[in-house]
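Record pair follows.
FIRST:
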Amino acid sequence: MAKYNPENIKTIGVYASGGDAPGMNAAIRAVVRTAILRKLRVVGITQGYTGMLEKQFADMDLRSVANIIQRGGSILKAGRCPEFIKTENRKIAVDNLRSEGIDALVCIGGDGSFTAANLLWQEHKIPVVGVPGTIDNDIFGTDHTIGFDTAVNTALDAIDRIRDTAASHDRLFIIEVMGRDSGFIAVASGLAGGAEDIFIPEHPFQIDKTVDLIKRGMARGKNSSILVAAEGVKPGRAYDLAESIRKNSGHLATVCILGHIQRGGRPSAFDRLIASRMGSNAVDQLLSGNCDIMVGTKGDNLVHVELSECLKQKKHVNKDLIQLAQILSN
């Protein structure tokens, strides 16, 4: 991890970036209240990197984060900023940060957010610590990201409800969950929801094997089935799967796309807990002279991983869980 002299830190900026995730507000609350306890000024940056370019800064106090721990989304907004790819725009952002008196940053977001945070340190020596906030759980170096547990439980609740309808009408359902490049939500919700099969971008599948699973279930009197698919490159992938199943078996599959419902809602107790711990620890890491790192989890413990390492390596889904889902659905 990078080291610097923390004695001159008087003001910390905090922002959320990328897609919103349940629990981000708990992390913001932890950053603000820990920093104020440590006698620091805290500035909230609205809309992430866009806010840095547009000087969307506001001082935060203890009351500004009252009654937010149970709220989904981000009180500081979130979003992506393609303009930040340009070196000259990052220089503008740094000038704006310094004119506001911001000495260090806490970034709450995913890999795109961490890429920009890493560049702020590498190019301009702005101390920054990352807090992983993404429902996809695809950040290397941490067991859990903020929002993943809530998203899985939201998807699982939908799967349970759809299963009632599937059983009542003897239907095959394909439920599409979020996960463009990552199948963590699909695997966790599919296994917990008793799905017959799970489709994820990282794992090639053979539709014939899925059809065989469905037919074996029918042979023993099972009249309804649930399949869970990550959306992949674009939402609506489940319709292609449904058509493949129809062509290979003659069975019609009803598609249900959950979409952005998985992003919103009250964060689970688990997400509030890890967000609070990570946010508070991010401030303490900055005050200890540590930066260009992410605060993550390993089991019950907090760990610190260099941002470059998080970005360089890929976190892999445990594909054995897909096989387990298939075994348990027989």
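SECOND:
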Amino acid sequence: MAIKSCTAELRYPVEVCCEKLRVSRSAYYKWISGKKSIRQQENERIAELAEEIHNENPDKGHRRIRDDLEKYHEIQISDKRMLRICRAKGIKSTIKYSNKGCTRHAANPQYIAENKLNREFHADRPNEKWLTDVTEFKWYEGPIVHKVYLSAILDLFDRRIVAFATRDSNDNPLVFDTFHSAVNANPDAHPLFHSDRGFQYTNRTFHNMLEAAGMQ
């Protein structure tokens, strides 16, 4: 708008205005023509589909919307781009989950691994990166509280669950059994294996299991 005003009202050359405001002339002429780039058109189409998905399922945030776009509309899009589009449209999950994590960090960990994933939650191929964690679920029978624990391993490439196990106790066998199931189902997989620093994942036995499976 500033360039348009200066050229129309003050008769400044377009080249000078663009140079002073550090805007390329091609970008200015494209903007003033009103033509949208292919990227902008794609984003608008994705935004419309995202709104439809969110209106039907308000509990879905940008990650689950991205999954639906890939699964049902064959649209490949990164999490970051999906997040930008959802933020621009004001789309966000209506459900807020409280943090009730059940992982207990080891008081005296036997092995602490370097954080090689470093929040790069993207994989280019199957079995490149696996994530794992334990989740606690509660249910009530009258005043009595019951708990069950779910251990799962997820492939970052397509978010498939590689293996899972459930137990009444959050202990080493829960995690070890999950890992053995994943290795048995994928004997040729040697992914980067990422977890928090819970007591199951930082003991020497689990580290030896990772090394035996050819994983970091």
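COMMENT: The chain has two domains: 2-89, 129-212.
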